[in-house]
């Protein structure tokens, strides 16, 4: 049954390839901070940030023009006090993209004038890919790209293929 074997191997290669692609790229989402309002005054960023679930590999896009605003990632303490001198990350060139590369808590403020104390700030918690609950995929909205396929499901499928393949050979 050489032909049968070839077909199974072909299937395995296709599925593994698809899985690798999904885990690398398609899973990542980019969130436009503040939706259509972008990064500016008079937006409730706490309410905005609560709408999504963030995973490692996702990114935030801050839409603004220089020099009106800046994007600073700060510590929890500096976030509370709106302290700008100690930033972990800082950019003011306009249209900042920030990669959420690792799980954990992130705090962002605007470093211009009194914008931070006027609530131009928010915090998000990036979950580990495995603990994220895919249960509530929220309403699809134009200000976010949603995650389409859960890699966990894909992995289970791959694990299912292994005994199938050994049974056939
Ligand atoms: C912003 O939204 C949060 C969450 O919905 C709410 O608790 C808070 O009171 C709002 N802040 C203002 C200034 O409206
Ligand atoms: C910033 O991003 C917005 C939205 O993607 C775009 O329309 C605008 O042209 C960008 N501005 C600059 C200076 O790149």
UniProtKB/TrEMBL annotation:
Residues passing through the membrane, by range: 148-168
Entry keyword set: Copper, Glycoprotein, Membrane, Metal-binding, Signal, Transmembrane, Transmembrane helix
GO molecular function: electron transfer activity; metal ion binding
Keyword Signal annotated: yes
Span of the signal peptide: 1-28
PROSITE patterns with a match to the protein in the record: COPPER_BLUE (PS00196), PHYTOCYANIN (PS51485)
Keyword Membrane tagged: yes
Source organism, top-level taxon: Eukaryota
CDD domains: Phytocyanin
Family matches, as Pfam families: Cu_bind_like (PF02298)
A single Gene Ontology CC term: plasma membrane
Domain named Phytocyanin: residues: 29-128
UniProt cross-references to PANTHER family, sorted A to Z: BLUE COPPER PROTEIN (PTHR33021), OS07G0570600 PROTEIN (PTHR33021:SF339)
Protein name: Phytocyanin domain-containing protein
């Amino acid at each position: 049954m050489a032909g049968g074997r070839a077909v199974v191997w072909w299937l395995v290669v296709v599925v593994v390839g698809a899985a690798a692609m999904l885990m690398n790229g398609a899973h990542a989402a980019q969130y436009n901070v503040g939706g259509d309002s972008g990064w500016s005054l008079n937006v409730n960023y706490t309410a905005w940030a609560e709408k999504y679930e963030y995973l490692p590999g996702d990114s935030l896009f801050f839409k603004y023009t220089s020099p009106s605003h800046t994007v600073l990632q700060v510590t929890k303490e500096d976030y509370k006090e709106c302290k700008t001198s100690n930033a972990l990350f800082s950019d003011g060139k306009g249209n900042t993209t920030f990669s959420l590369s690792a799980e954990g808590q992130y705090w962002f403020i605007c470093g211009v004038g009194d914008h931070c104390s006027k609530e131009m700030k928010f915090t998000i918690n990036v979950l580990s890919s495995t603990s994220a609950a895919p249960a509530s995929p929220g309403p699809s909205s134009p200000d976010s790209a949603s995650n389409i396929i859960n890699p966990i499901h894909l992995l289970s499928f791959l694990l299912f293929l292994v005994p199938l393949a050994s049974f056939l050979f």
